[in-house]
Amino acid sequence: MEFVNPEGLRLDGRRPTELRQIRAELGAVAKADGSAVFEMGNTKVIAAVYGPREVRFEYSMANFSTGDRMRRPKGDRRSTEISLVLRQTMEACIMTHLMPRSQIDIFVQVLQADGGTRSACINAASLALADAGIPMRDLVTSCSAGYLNSTPLLDLNYVEDSAGGADVTVGIFPKLDKVTLLQMDAKLPLDIFENVMQLATEGCKAIATELREVSNLMKEINIVGEHKAIGISARGIKSYARWFRLQLCPDCCYTQFLSP
Amino acid sequence: MEEDGDVVVTPGEVLGKSSDLKAGAGAYVSPQDHAVYASLTGFRRILSPPPDAPDQRPTVEVTGHKAHGPVPEPGSIVTARVTRVMARMASADIMCVGTKSVREKFSGIIRQQDVRATEIDKVDMHLSFHAGDIVRALVVQQWFQLVGQRCNAHRQGKLSKERLPRLEDDEMK
Question: Where is the Exosome complex component N-terminal domain (chain B) (predicted)?
């Protein structure tokens, strides 16, 4: 099958080094301490963060739960593996030593899967953590890249992902320039692997600038809300905010949820 | 003097070198390159050091939009509401730490021997506390299992100023 046509375009019309369209939104889950929706093309993931909260019981829940709405008997292998990957990636970035004996729950749910779900999960979780105000070393971002038709391709969609070629998922700390996650589920010659990984890293950095923008924008909205809370309208604050949280007074814990 | 910046930073952004700046809340120093990074999303503020401080570097801090509520820790003075009185102890919900109200629930225990300084074994908990009483208390110990926070409370009227430092001394041992 031809994944890159003679004009150099992919099945969905992208160039080999082009990301899919990214959309992100903070504060989608009103009850959570922090939450985000992250979309890359048709892949859509929602993440909610609760905590840091006191650990009250001896037994502990799984820190992550992924999967779809089907009740699965006891976490299938795929979601267990993704949970583990997500957990390790997030643990590396959260400054856990500042919150001893506390628990942070991150719930990630894939709403639409079109390839690159674990990257999208990491990006969504990262945004949700930033929204929750949990101290982090850096805003972790993740992106995948593959190698099909002797071309390195950035941000594989489902068709490209299931074509059987190599799929390299990279997670980085963009500002610190460190790799936190690297997965590949096929074999590649070393020189090609380096190219593919380089491409995925570039993708991560591009996503990082996008995430920072979303994060900054929401910050401004929240500050406006904090100072003059009553009667604010969300109109004119771009389309990022669907729900946002207003904090009236830090001491009285009163919060109000508005929709635009 | 403090500079109230309009600069919004996100986690991982470089705020300066650790030789020029001290990392305050919401910032950290990376051991690898000795740079100061932000760890929260929020406004950057640079605070000048007090003129008599030995370390004359200004402190940079990032104030996030979602400030976490205060958390009681050993040594903090809390205001608590008594929820249940038993023969040897009373349980209480912590409402304020210092002057700030808590965001989430913390519960504590006032033990019989911690109610007053003298004749501690003759304290009658039922005469000392009622459910619903508001008490000011010193947190003596933290307990992280089933009981969330273990606190040591004094009935408001019985709290004497001499008593509090003594408790802290006890705690040091």
Answer: 8-46
All residues of chain B having their beta carbon less than 8 Å from the beta carbon of residue A215 are 10, 41
Higher pLDDT, B7 or A202: A202
Cβ contact (<8 Å) for A219 and B42? yes
Residues of A in contact with B68 (CB under 8 A): 52, 133
Distance from CA of B11 to the nearest CA of A (A): 5
- pLDDT tens-place string over residues B116-144: 888 888 889 998 888 999 988 888 876 54
Q: What is the ipTM of this complex?
A: 0.70
Q: Which residue has the tokens 């504590």?
A: B108
Quote the pLDDT of residue A119: 93
Can you tell me the distance from the alpha carbon of A179 to that of B133, in angstroms, rounded to the nearest whole number? 54
Domains and CATH numbers, chain B: 2-64 (2.40.50.100), 77-172 (2.40.50.140)
CB proximity list for A36: less than 8 A, separation 6 or greater: A24, A25, A26, A27, A28, A46, A47, A124, A125, A127, A128, A131
Q: Report B:104-123 residues touching A (Cβ under 8 A).
A: 104, 106
Q: Which residues are A240's β-sheet partners?
A: none
DSSP-based three-state secondary structure for A58: coil
Q: What is the pLDDT of residues B13-71, one digit of tens each?
A: 899 898 988 888 889 998 888 899 999 888 888 888 888 878 888 888 888 766 667 77
Q: Is residue A204 part of a domain?
A: yes
Hey, of A104, A126, A223, which one would you mutate to test binding to chain B, going by the most B CBs within 10 A of its CB?
Answer: A223
Q: Residue A174 to residues A39, A170, A206, A234, B7: CA-CA distances in angstroms? A: 19, 11, 9, 31, 20
